[in-house]
Specification:
This protein has one domain. It contains four helices and three strands.
Length: 156
């Protein structure tokens, strides 16, 4: 009894699909790898920004607790601490030199360390975040992602 080959999906004249499945698998694998890379890079930048913000907050808190030598001896005795811009800047510089978190950032600079009202310290820091997977690719064009944060603290 002869067999009918019309139900058979593969005929001798049709092209094979064997290579297309492999190509589609490679494309999906590369897409998944790209998505993982984007998530890792975005997470690294976000965590670096949070660490820099914590460092700015700690530096502002340290500056808010500091009173300048001249202010301490020349101001009348009151319950209020009066901050000066020079005392805030000096306190922030001293704190950043001794803080172990400062070593985690490249190009860490103090953009601003001052007081506007004599009771609150405002500290703005700038640093470059190292993105683990992106730096390898973009090293020729960029040094990293520049982050700038501001922390404030008020005296009690």
């Amino acid at each position: 009894m002869p067999t009918d080959r019309s139900d058979d999906h593969h005929s001798d004249n049709s092209p094979s699909d064997d290579g297309q499945v492999m190509l589609l698998s490679i494309a999906y694998g590369l897409l998944a790898l790209l998505l993982v890379t984007v998530v890792v890079c975005a997470s690294a930048v976000h965590l670096a920004r949070k660490e820099l913000l914590a460092l700015a907050d700690l530096a502002a808190l340290e500056a808010a607790d500091t009173m300048g030598h001249d202010t301490y001896y020349t101001s009348p005795r009151t319950d209020q601490v009066t901050l000066t811009p020079d005392a805030v800047a000096g306190s922030v510089d001293a704190y950043l030199e001794s803080a172990p978190q400062s070593g985690r950032f490249s190009d860490l600079t103090v953009v601003e360390a001052t007081t506007d009202d004599g009771r609150s310290a405002r500290v703005t820091l700038r640093a470059v975040a190292d993105v683990p997977l992106l730096n390898v690719i973009t090293a020729a064009w960029s040094d990293g992602v520049v982050l700038e944060v501001t922390g404030e603290a008020r005296t009690g």
